[in-house]
Amino acid sequence: MSNANQPQIESKNLMIVGDQMNHEALAYKKCELYAGYFVDPTLKSMAQKLARHHKAHFDNLLSYLDSHQ
Length: 69
Fold this sequence. Notes:
With 69 residues, this protein is mainly alpha-helical. It has a domain at 24-67. The chain has two helices and no strands. It has helices at residues 11-37, 41-67. Helix 1 (11-37) packs antiparallel against helix 2 (41-67). The longest helix is centred in the middle third of the chain and has 27 residues, at 11-37.
């Protein structure tokens, strides 16, 4: 798949996206860790849902970057 028609991302914007990816990855890891600690099924489920939410955001940012290479 060619991305020749996609504009390049400016370095400042690339840094911002990279920072956001780091934040999403950290949030995902924390939620997964907390889900492992919780015994209450409601809390465990909520932490797992939040982990999936942050993982999806990370994956979307990664796809965005991949589409602009």
